[in-house]
Amino acid sequence: MTAPTERAGDPNGLAARLPASENTLGLIGAGVAVTAWGASGVLAKGIDMDGLAISAYRFWMYALAMVVVLAVRGSPVTMHTMRHSMAGGIALALDVAFFFSAVKLTTIVDATVIGSMQPVILMFAAGPLFGERIGARNAGWAGVALAGAVGVVMASSGTPEWNIQGDLLSAGAVFAWSGYFVFSKRSKGVISPTEFTVGTALWVALITTPLAAVFGQDLSPPSAVSWFWLTVMAFGSGILGHSVMNWSLVRIPLWVGSVLTLLVPVVSSLLAWAFLNEAITTAQALAMAVVIGALSMIVRSDIDS
């Protein structure tokens, strides 16, 4: 049994030190963030630009807006901020480069459900990184979740939108995304959540712009329609999503924030069905239910322990 100040999934006793209202606000913030992220893949698929070009434009808009906000508040971006946000920025750059490229190739369902495996990855990383222990039951449910994710991919392999390269890119994105969460959590006490948000955004913009050029993607000014949706992405999924999640991760355990990302495939799939006419087959729906159900059992087990 863990000590009163060291709950499972919260080895630093964060939940015990913070008021209940702070934990509740953190949960609400994380919920808002993942809902905003759920829309990003659908928006990216509807923009007539390549994935890396979308990332470059989106994060320059997002980063410059955040730089202005910090300057107005009298706390401009410093080398200290850039140094301590670099690892998170590299991880986020890889995530968005892989993910936005993936949704151009494969289905929104595949990309987001593969992304929902992040809690499993963080569970196995939690031991060496944060001293958290994983029981046999949770390991078993993690295996079920992995089997469900494979089922989603197999169920969609016959659809016109499916592409194996897109699925592999989605797999790369989820590992990078997991790294971003870890670095965000580790930044606590070194730089503020806002500084981490703007620092990582600048790193993403600086990394994805030359990558887009190297891979021959068109970086010319977008159309008026694309500018509109890029703005929605920058201020919705970007500033709102990342700022609120980074703020929440210093108020809730890492695994809780990670598990809440399970809302992303639900939001994305429903939006893709509603606006992009992407069908969800019965087999896909059942496989998605297996993934979400298994991961929900992992959460329940952690809460009860």
What is the secondary structure topology, with strand pairs?
Elements: H1 14-17, H2 20-46, H3 51-72, H4 79-102, H5 108-115, H6 118-130, H7 136-156, H8 164-186, H9 193-214, H10 224-248, H11 254-259, H12 263-275, H13 282-304
Helix pairs in contact: 2-10, 2-12, 3-4, 3-9, 3-10, 4-8, 4-9, 5-7, 5-8, 5-12, 6-8, 7-13, 9-10
How would you describe what is shown here?
It is a single chain. The chain has 305 residues and is an all-alpha fold. The protein has one domain (19-304). Helices cover 76% and strands 0% of the residues. Helix 7 (136-156) runs antiparallel to helix 13. The chain starts with 13 loop residues before the first helix and ends with a helix. The model is unreliable at 1-16 (pLDDT under 50).
Name some characteristics of this structure.
single chain, 305 residues, mainly alpha, disordered N terminus
